[in-house]
Design goal:
single chain, 137 residues, mainly alpha, 0% strand
Length: 137
């Protein structure tokens, strides 16, 4: 049994906020995977933790994009929760101990390098997913 089924999930992302959310996560997935790929390929020895965290963020964004597009609410909810936890944990640690993060990650400083979108996006995603689930039930 799926968590909303493909038909309901497809309808949810064909227009409006669902479509925008999928598009924004898709852009962030491409940006994060590109950034992480270049960092790992060219400067991995300088800040392996930061670059691996950027790669992890990219994987989370990819999972979210696919889950939202396919209507997999449980997967999307879990990925949003992981994303929010990552932004809060990495953001706090990067400010509390800047030496531990000599190079920025997508989630450093709560996503300040990306205009704080990485902090706002999972909140918006969780809100949309929870609101949509209630109205679809």
């Amino acid at each position: 049994m799926t968590d909303g089924g493909p038909a309901r999930g497809d309808a949810a992302v064909r227009s409006g906020p669902g479509r925008v959310l999928v598009a924004v996560y898709g852009v962030f997935a491409l940006a994060a995977i590109s950034r992480a790929g270049v960092q790992i390929a060219t400067k991995f020895g300088e800040a392996p933790l930061a670059y691996l965290l950027s790669a992890f963020a990219a994987v989370v964004y990819i999972v979210l994009t696919v889950a939202l597009a396919r209507g997999s609410r449980r997967v999307a909810l879990a990925a949003c929760a992981i994303e929010l936890a990552g932004v809060l944990i990495v953001g706090t640690l990067s400010l509390a101990d800047p030496a531990a993060f000599p190079h920025a990650t997508v989630w450093s400083g709560y996503g300040s390098g990306y205009g704080f979108v990485p902090l706002v996006l999972p909140v918006v995603g969780l809100f949309w997913l929870l609101r949509h689930r209630k109205s679809a039930s």
